[in-house]
Amino acid sequence: MSLNFEPLVKNRARNFGKYITLDKQGRIMLSAEFRREFSPIQYEKQIPFDVFVFLEKSRKIIGIVNAEKERLVASDKLRVDKRGYVNGKDIAEAFRLDPKQGPYRFTYEGRTGYEGYTLDTFRLVEAEAE
Q: Is the overall model pTM greater than 0.90, yes or no?
């Protein structure tokens, strides 16, 4: 009897790249690769930083602006902790997502301009909601 064993190789690619995750506790987590590029000094020093968040509700897109580089009057700052987490309950509510049904993954779409600001944008991957 011949057995055809294959080695198990974990899919590590799912944890690399630029993405955002809305976890089951209602927290938004910014990937390390995104944080390293977005706010390199804070990433290297492992210190919190502030962001402004924009939502495109109909297409479930999150836009993020570095609060260190831009000043906005019509938006509240959100504090990203040294591990890359920020409260995401308002985002979950705006997109009508139940964090307990998550996690939800938002993939990086690129940079786009909006009212003179440069936003890093992330789109919800519907099939990833578990």
A: no
